[in-house]
Design a protein that fits this description.
By secondary structure, the protein is an alpha/beta fold. It has three domains: 6-60, no CATH class; 76-253, 3-Layer(aba) Sandwich (Rossmann fold); 279-404, VC0802-like, CATH 3.30.2130. It is built from 14 helices and 17 strands. The radius of gyration is 25 Å and the shape is globular. The N and C termini lie far apart (51 Å).
Length: 412
């Protein structure tokens, strides 16, 4: 559906359309009165569009609160920030600053920014601009958690190419370059829109900002020197790479990683990339599985060196050390026993330890399927739970029976 069918879009994003979508999802109805449907509306067409929105909304639930109202197209939902990540970025920018959200898409970052800042959202796509305004109307924040009325902040949407207005932008910016300029996804900044030159102009003339990129995107040396590159993880995956400038807590030339998996406040780990860490041939008393965002940032060795840990085999695998570590970027396991990988011997070990429920993790170890081993290895009569970590050291596969360091072996 294109913006040309504006009457249908307006009805779809009204309380009438939202009520239909909620009914399709089996959700509670709206508390406020519902807009009456015009007599001339095309019921079958609208019903199909509501079904499509219900499908997209259900797909978005791991990334957005279930009771929240968001309207999508397929491409705009795929490129949108997760809600938790959007709120994290909005909190980074000083609250007194007005922000331009460039290439705003469906408006997720613009709405998150609007909770703390005056926002001008910009996109070249008229439908994206329409959805940004609709999503803002449904998700704007008028009251704080204590019920007090929040200060009024301006919010506007402008349909334009960034190049057309760039010389008018002297505020903080958040930019989400289009990574599908020809419908094919790219991680190369040379093929993104706005152009490389436009983004470099923003870096030079804006007092501060954030450029959102795919985790695998490589950036020019100038950007690496002028910004702090921060990889953000959520739900055990690396979701975004941010180029940040204008914030003293994110020094230029540094790399960083942060995990938003925990409900508590997480702090980023910042350092310079280091190529080497001490290597270990066998695990010490504890094994540490680091977050994918730390790996994406290339900071595994720096993180190991900062905590005097060793890399088991190499820095792309697990880390090991003699003390438990509680950090948002690592999962810590206490080693119970280590043996060379042999399925029969591992099965015997699990039987001796009465392990009836098993979580299997691996790095390397080509040919081993954790999902299958998780089901086939445990002793069905066993009463305890454990974790089996499969690693590759000097081209040899080893099996490490372990348990999370914060817990004792538990009954099923």
């Amino acid at each position: 559906m294109s913006l040309a069918d504006i009457d249908t879009w307006e009805l779809l994003t009204s309380s009438f359309g939202e009520q239909m979508i909620r009914q399709m999802l089996g959700q509670s109805p709206l508390e406020d009165p519902v807009t009456e449907a015009p007599q001339s509306y095309r019921h079958r067409l609208l019903h199909a569009f509501c079904e499509q929105q219900a499908f997209w909304r259900k797909r978005s639930w791991p990334r957005f609160p279930r009771e929240a109202t968001w309207f999508w197209t397929d491409n705009l939902m795929q490129q949108a920030s997760d809600w938790q990540t959007a709120l994290y970025k909005a909190n980074l920018i000083p609250q007194s600053e007005a922000v331009f959200d460039l290439c705003c898409g469906a408006g997720v970052d613009a709405v998150a920014l609007s909770h703390l800042h005056s926002v001008t959202a910009v996109d070249i796509d008229p439908l994206a601009c329409f959805l940004t305004q609709a999503n803002f109307d449904w998700n704007k924040l008028d009251f704080g958690t204590d019920g007090t009325l929040l200060p009024e902040r301006s919010f506007s949407v402008e349909c334009a190419a960034v190049e057309e207005i760039i010389h008018d932008i002297h505020h903080w910016v958040h930019v989400d370059p289009d990574r599908r300029p020809d419908e094919n996804r790219t991680t190369s900044v040379e093929w993104m829109q706005p152009s490389l030159g436009t983004l470099e102009t923003l870096l030079q003339q804006s007092p501060g900002g954030i450029i959102k990129l795919a985790p695998a995107s490589e950036v020019p040396t100038l950007w690496t020197e002028a910004t702090c590159r921060l990889w953000i993880g959520d739900r055990r995956q690396c979701r975004q790479q941010l180029l940040i400038w204008g914030l003293p807590q994110f020094p230029s030339g540094c790399s960083g990683a942060i995990s938003l998996d925990n409900s508590g406040e997480s702090l980023p780990y910042l350092d310079k990339v280091q190529p080497y860490a001490e290597l270990a041939s066998l695990p010490d008393q504890f094994i540490y599985d680091f977050h994918p965002s730390l790996r994406a940032a290339g900071l595994s060795a720096a993180f190991a060196n900062s905590l005097k840990l060793a890399a088991l085999g190499d820095v792309s695998g697990y880390l090991t050390g003699g003390q438990p570590i509680h950090h948002s970027l690592v999962d810590c396991y206490q080693v119970i026993e280590t043996i060379a990988w042999d399925e029969k011997k591992v099965r015997k070990l699990l039987r001796e330890k009465s392990i009836g429920s098993l979580v299997v993790k691996k790095r390397g170890c080509k040919g081993l399927d954790p999902n299958k081993l998780q089901l086939s290895l445990p002793d069905k009569r066993g009463e305890l739970q454990a974790t089996l970590i499969l690693a590759e050291v000097h081209k040899k596969q080893i099996a490490i029976l372990a348990q999370p360091s914060s817990s004792q072996p538990t009954h099923r």
